[in-house]
Amino acid sequence: MTYHPKSxxxxxxxERGFIADCxxxxxxxxxxSTGVVTAYIGYDATAASLHVGHLLNxxxxxxxxxxxxxxxxxxxxxxxxxxxxxxxxxxRPLLDxxxxxxxxxxxxxxLNRYLAYGEGPTDALLLNNADWLDGLxxxxxxxxxxxxxxxxxxxxxxxxxxxxxxxxxxSFLEFNYMILQAYDFMELNRRHGCLLQMGGSDQWxxxxxxxxxxxxxxxxxxxxxxxxxxxxxxxxxxxxxxxGAIWLNExxxxxxxxxxxxxxxxxxxxxxxxxxxxxxxxxECDRLGALGGSEINAAKITLANxxxxxxxxxxxxxxxxxxxREVFEKGGVGDDLPKxxxxxxxxxxxISIAQLLVRAGLAGSGKEARRLLTEGGAKMDDAPIAxxxxxxxxxxxxxxxxxSAGKKRHALVQIG
Length: 416
Fold this sequence. Notes:
This protein has helices spanning 8-16, 25-34, 52-66, 97-114, 130-133, 138-144, 151-156, 158-165, 172-175, 177-192, 204-218, 255-263, 270-277, 282-289, 295-312, 314-328, 344-347, 353-359, 366-374, and strands at 21-22, 38-43, 70-75, 125-128, 196-200, 223-227, 240-241, 244-245, 339-342, 351-352, 378-380, 383-384, 391-392, 401-405, 409-415.
């Protein structure tokens, strides 16, 4: 793409690699150049925390606010009751109101770290689409909104087509999701003058639906912009690890565990991730990403420190780096390692080493733990575990025990 943007926001995100597609680059750039623009990203409340897979778009909203515009984080209190079918092979489990409210609170705690919320012209707004979706009158909604949607066109969207091609069930409930998301965009435009919806490239069809619906019903021009769906250079989906999702909530993943995820970035991804997930100048990102040999490890530490500082604070990043140095360079325990605290009741007559690996987050399942043990990849207090069937009693755990999975993942097990 050869378009040269005038607005600071578009120039910044193009240079840093945030853009996959946009409905109208030039018209959006013009709007961004002439005043404060309001944009939103939606988050369905399906878990108690956002995870690393959300972080690219959270950083996009952060840059949007830093360059003088107003972000909206839209919580899907209404749409979570249905579930987004985009690129899923099955239907999402349905949550009740209490679970949705609890999840929204957990997600909001993360968003507060990245965005400034308030009443000012560029302060972020936290909204909930249940405010307008829960009260919809079904017949009136079908008549006023539903008539603008072509089933033929909806069936052509890749997110729907892929499910049907695999002969996997797509419920009528899920099929309505894209109509409701389009309605969200129009409603935000009516209520808050929102001109832009942003999201991952898997949301392109849903975003375009909102642009089209608003043009048809309100005769207003609004825009959509998507970010690339990231995979690591070795082909893994960004944000996934052997232990599962990389959560952004401290209660679900320690700052050290979060820091270590970024420290383990493959060499080829360092420069790209510095541009996307930190605020370091692009020139410095390129310089760090081009380092070779052992020097690239210093760039990975910079990446881990900067990303962790944005989420958990500078002190947490420094503590994580100090712990890593203690563990890896000196063979010590480290004060900031993730901790598993067990009660005497948890241990009973004894607890297996495989169970401890799973409960400490070092293995995703008992099967994975047993494979780790039989292949010699697990250690206790830095010594290989010779017996995969090892049982530990209360006496064995009377002092903290350091468990390791491979060379880079560690945890402390102790009795509380």
